[in-house]
Fold this sequence. Notes:
Order of helices and strands: EEEEEHEEEEHEHHEEEHH
Bound molecules: uridine-5'-diphosphate
Strand content: 25-35%
CATH class of the largest domain: Alpha Beta
Number of domains: 2
Radius of gyration: 17 Å
Number of strands: 13
Distance between the termini: 26 Å
Helix content: 25-40%
CATH topology of the largest domain: D-amino Acid Aminotransferase, Chain A, domain 1
Number of helices: 6
Structural class: alpha+beta
Amino acid sequence: MNHIQGSLIYEGKAKRIFSSEDPNRVLIEFKNDATAFNAKKRSEIDGKGRLNCRISGALFKLLEANGIPTHFLELHSETIMFADKVNVIPLEVVIRNIATGSLCRETPINHGTILNPPLLDFYYKDDQLGDPILTERRLKLLDLINASQKEEVEEITESVNKILKEYFDSLDLILVDFKLEFGFNSLGKIVVADEISPDNCRFWDKKNSDPQDRILDKDRFRQDLGGVIDAYEEIFKRIENFSSNAS
Ligand code: UDP
């Protein structure tokens, strides 16, 4: 069923949020719209919404099973999920296991450098400002989260990284980096929100050493490499095969 009865609360670049009968629950619809470079590059990719919804659903389930609090409740349909209604904190928390992307554009660190321990950075979520990176002091000055909440966000992000890195390794995928968003649920508890998909994670195929062919995430769109949906499909296929082998 794809029909939603609730009213539209918010429409973002890749998702629409609708109210549900329960005031503490929302429906999140994943769209086919693709954007990059803070929405300066746009396109529509058939099937992306379905794949990101299903990949996110599977990964949120995996995290919940490992004790990570998330907003995810259950899938509603192929492109829609039920989630806790949260107040999203306007922060993008990025954790990197391998250097690439903005880290290599903005610092002399070489592409492909292994980051051990992983590098965690906070960015202020605002397209118009270009999602600027925050120093510790700027983060404190913004006062979006207090010191203990900051620690909690960092601990959750590091745990999510450990869980996902190990999981994707078993699927022959390297988890290069990813971005998380957090929100406060109706009880004031901090939970992982938004999505976890090839739109906000970088995956490299362990079975492929070609630096372009191994890319199985949104970098295919960002860099005009083609085969975007095939890459997302491949991630989903490996997740599904893992689940059917496990059950
Ligand atoms: N990311 C994201 N949304 C953003 C910026 C980054 O989901 O607005 C993700 C991106 O997909 C990658 C990680 O965060 O997995 C690190 O991205 P980076 O800072 O290297 O940015 P980019 O090279 O895409 O500008």
